[in-house]
Design brief:
Blueprint: H1 2-22, E1 28-34, H2 40-50, E2 55-60, E3 66-72, H3 78-87, H4 99-103
Antiparallel strand pairs: 1-3, 2-3
Helix pairs in contact: 2-3
């Protein structure tokens, strides 16, 4: 009986060590980027498009056109977030939205595009 208890204890101990070594510690970093848009509906779409895995917090300000986010740099890059936002129809400092994605935006969300 003592051998079985010891074996269970050792197995639990080893499983605990394995579970701890498999994860990574979050490397949180706050980033900002300019994203063009017009209104509250833009805000909702931009924030939804940017809320990909590894993004902890995200906020787009309609007046300043600044997207502020906190992301885990072990999981995602600002580049990937801005690509996702562009794919949703919103030009930003790194990517121009595809024409069809921009055209699909509601009229109130069709901001003046930079050449």
């Amino acid at each position: 009986m003592k051998k079985i208890a010891a074996l269970i204890w050792i197995t639990g101990l080893l499983t605990g060590f394995h579970a701890c070594s498999g994860g990574h510690e979050k490397q949180l970093s706050e980033k900002t980027a300019r994203v063009w848009g017009n209104c509250d509906q833009c805000k909702a779409t931009i924030e939804k498009a940017g809320k990909i895995e590894g993004v902890d917090n995200i906020n787009w300000n309609e007046d300043s056109k600044l997207l502020t986010l906190t992301l885990d740099t072990n999981q995602v890059t600002l580049d990937a977030v801005l690509k996702s936002v562009a794919d949703a129809g919103y030009d930003n400092e790194l990517y121009t939205a595809p024409g069809d994605a921009y055209a699909d935006l509601p009229d109130c969300c069709q901001y003046e595009r930079k050449p």
